[in-house]
Amino acid sequence: MDVQRKLAILADAAKYDASCASSGTEKRDSRDGKGLGSTAPGMGICHSYAPDGRCISLLKVLLTNACAYDCLYCVNRASSNVPRARFTVGEVVQLTLDFYRRNYIEGLFLSSGIIRSADYTMEQIVEVARRLREDHQFRGYIHLKTIPEADDALIAKAGRYADRLSINIEMPEETSLAQLAPEKNVRAIRRTMGRLRLKLDEATEAKKAPTRTKPPRFAPAGQSTQMIVGADAATDQTILNTSANLYGSYNLKRVYYSAFSPIPDSSRALPLQAPPLVREHRLYQADWLMRFYGFEAGEIIDPAAGMLSLEMDPKLAWALRHRERFPLDVNRASREELLRVPGFGRKAVDRIIDTRRHSAIRSTDLAKLHIPRNKALPFIVLPDHRPPAYQLDGARLAERFRPKAQQLGFGF
Ligand code: SF4
User: Fold this and answer.
1) What are the C-alpha distances in Å from 383 to residues 234, 339, 359?
2) S-S: 18 plus which of 12, 42, 60, 256, CB 3.0-4.6 Å?
3) Which residue has the least CA distance to atom 2 on ligand 1?
4) Residue 252 falls within a domain, yes or no?
5) Ligand 1 centre from 220 Cα, in Å?
6) If you measure from the C-alpha of residue 339 to the centroid of ligand 1, how many angstroms do you get, rounded to a whole number?
7) Distance of alpha carbon 261 from alpha carbon 127, whole angstroms
8) Whole-structure pTM value
9) What is the whole-number distance in angstroms between the Cα of residue 77 and the centre of ligand 1?
10) Is 10 in the pocket of ligand 1 (CB under 6 A)?
């Protein structure tokens, strides 16, 4: 099979993995004339290589989609009836270099099905990164998917070469993982995440220590994970609880949410339909609220529903359930309170706090702060604006934010 055909199969097989943002790594470049490539920290690029040839920032491929495991939700499982392919280590290295030189990509996202054993697979993945870094002085971004059952020494080696390491937790609940991916072991996944955290903490400490020698590098962009949404019956509340636990216990940079897509010849244990894509989007918004807006996992979702509203964003839904906390005086409220106002982003809040030291914020300033007036005005007080009590308390306020009902078509 030629490399082009392998690429079509293995890039397509990798598309279900959502965890490939390339933000947060250290700054590196080759302007000194040595090496090849650079990283652009903080750009938040996230990307893959589509089989139709379009370039998308990261070359996102599997080493092989011929997997020895049989996770029911995965198109690459051993019992799946899909064309199989396997790259050699040299082929992935060459593809990465070729694509980089042609400016198609800024880095590599490499994952793999299990070949023979966890250790053998991890050895191959690490060898790709080693050759890129040591033999070709590649300085672009490398994200390696880690096999949790692999030997500790291999994972330590992976961290030397990769910018980011990730281990997929896959299911929000242990029981679902046992049912849908019987060969995977949630304890091994968590143990490896714990070890990665220790190594990442050690690397951070070593960087701070006053020494002339450069400390050994270990995955400067940290670790991340991915959860599949909608393959089991877990509620959004369960998913957020699991994410909060993962962020707290392993200091993850990101949890990615990937809406389950029905796969050919799938098991009866799986749903026939994909969850609405907007559910994935709402989970990302809720995740953002936990990480940057001071919300706890347990307060974002209406406890009676257990699910995020698909009709409106989670912060707006929270504010409508907690109207007793509004209206809020923008010129007096604390930063924590302002962050909970619908339509107020973090940057806007920082600018409000900065500006109000010199002059009061008025309704005409909202546009300059990029705050949507319609969303924010019912919840705030300004020198030239106070929402009438009947508006904030009335049932019509929630209606105002619901998407307009649409006449269904007849399908012809
Ligand atoms: S280990 Fe499971 S999820 Fe990963 S490629 Fe194999 S079958 Fe798919």
Assistant:
1) 46, 20, 11
2) 256
3) 71
4) no
5) 26
6) 40
7) 32
8) 0.86
9) 6
10) no
